[in-house]
Amino acid sequence: MIVVTGATGKLGRHVIDELLKTVPAEQVVAGVRSTEKAADLAARGVTVRVVDYSKPETLALAFAGAEKVLLISSNEVGARVAQHKAVIDAAVVAQVKLFAYTSLLRADTSALALAAEHVATEAAIRDSGLPAVILRNGWYLENHTEALGPAVEHGVILGAAQDGLFAAAARLDYAAAAAAVLIGAGHEGKSYELAGDSSYSLPELAAEVSKASGKAVRYQNLSEEEYKNALIGFGLPAEIAGILSDSDAGAAKGELDSKASDLRGLIGRPSTSLAEAVRAAVRAR
Hints:
The chain is α/β, with parallel strands linked by helices.
């Protein structure tokens, strides 16, 4: 039995979809905070169990009979380590045979603010003695493509990455890699650096948006602090704005670029290209 936590999230749903291509639905468990949001998964034959990272008492029942568990990292920045530790402890009690975790690209050497909680989680997994595999996901294309409406409307994409490169891939690509690890064998003890096949800069993103939309869109580079304040002005919480501006500043220093081929190796196909992602996002506006 395979348990996927965060199964109603954007990444989790893709993982479930990928698993169901080859794994019988009765062997897949969707771990969710709200069972109501997983009604569609239950209708497909997937077992739905409550998994709340902040409520350890939910985890023992959720992991009962589990052979493999995918911990999709929490989105509650600042609370992640304690939440992840609760999941790890429950997996130890359940004696799972493979524990997979979605970490951050080169987490062990990354200077990004996002890295610290991932590093601590990876350490907790190692200390647990669980047979484990670390999926160090790079940047998501959707981070740049899900909100293109304002960019097209105003003709500008803001950022603080200068000409820094993003080796980004789509959620579907990272989900396919996770599913391949959960279905396959021989992944214990490995850490995969997962990144897109081709890197791009934010000026190149703007050019691609211009091409797909037929409207002139340019990239405007800001300082890290200016970008953070702009994001706050758009309504983002200060903490999230700080993480995004820090990530852009890190990209300017090469933190989000990679030549690793682990992603392509796991999914057996090219990763989603920037052009594909932008075209789809512009069509969906």
